[in-house]
Amino acid sequence: MRQSRKIDHINFALANVDKQAAGFADVKLLHCSLPELNWHDIDTSCQFLSKKLSAPILINAMTGGHPAVTEINRSLAKAARQAGIAIALGSQRAALEDISVANTFKVVREENPDGVVIANLSAGCSLAEAQRAVEMVQADAIQLHVNVPQELAMPEGDREFKGILANVAEIANQLPVPVIIKEVGFGMSRETVSQIYQTGVRIVDISGSGGTNFIAIEEGRHNDCVTDYAGDISDWGIPTVISIIEAMETDLPLVVVASGGVRSSHDIAKSLALGARVAGISRPLLQTLMDKGEEQLNQHVRQLIIGLRKIMLMCGAANVAELANVPAIITGQTSQWLRVRGIDINKYAQK
Ligand code: FNR
User: Fold this and answer.
1) CA distances for 311 relative to 24, 40, 43, 307, angstroms
2) Is residue 181 lining ligand 1, measured as CB closer than 6 Å?
3) What is the pLDDT of residues 232-275, one digit of tens each?
């Protein structure tokens, strides 16, 4: 059941299109006519999880746990290694239950022995399970995902969510590697991010709405189930750009990973200018791999990095620290949301 769900998620995710806005269209980075920089002065590298990345990009959690996806994970891991970017695994729950599928995850570390590899389990897992998931791939960190809307959209999904914060606190305090609390496309508010901080966790992946939509995916998988009278909730969640800013507005010393609808170099640059340290991309990379193959996947990642250099040069930012200081002008529905939440958006435009 769990294993066949892996294949369903890939098929339904690939059929899913971005219907909601992640908010990037509401953000403009300030153009710089006189950057006083050459192309080769631009340094896209960054530090993440105590290692150097060539660019602040993460191939975010997707798959593993079924023999048929081993080659997908191999290709994703090779792309991450070749480009020098980070990669996260899909949920390793299946391999904890059936050790025979552990290879579908281990292949990522085999192909990428020195890079940043991030384990993944639900935030409801036990400390011992988190330890096993980390050891399985000698992970540099573990993402513990929170996905209430997805669970509720699955007839077989969890219905019990009490005690998650205490569980996360125990894991974060005992595990030898950092814990990242990660959404799966529904975003985070500053209240949520503050609660996470209280557990001792120092990295959040806000994975906001506007990209892959797990309510739509699960409803597609269970189209036999009668939709209820709750109304259309396929637009549920907090868009990615708003989630980044909500996280920044906590003013807590957290590393923010931006994901959910990050589609271009421009989106990556905007995420960093708003305060994110790294940007995660899932479905588009899987799509390129499945439709066009491994070489095109590598090309896709290369183009993201070249595009980021161009945007940094046009902003006059020689490195990612300078990119974080580029004024970001927030308009449209995103600015309306932030205003009614009492957030001062002028400070993002007037750095
Ligand atoms: C996912 N995602 C995901 N996240 C997670 O924490 N554990 C998981 O096992 C999975 N599985 C998974 C499978 C597939 C096929 C996709 C496309 C995605 C969610 C993913 O990491 C990310 O948060 C969202 O997909 C939003 O990013 P994109 O796809 O809009 O770039």
Assistant:
1) 14, 13, 12, 6
2) no
3) 888 899 999 999 999 999 999 999 999 999 999 999 999 999 99
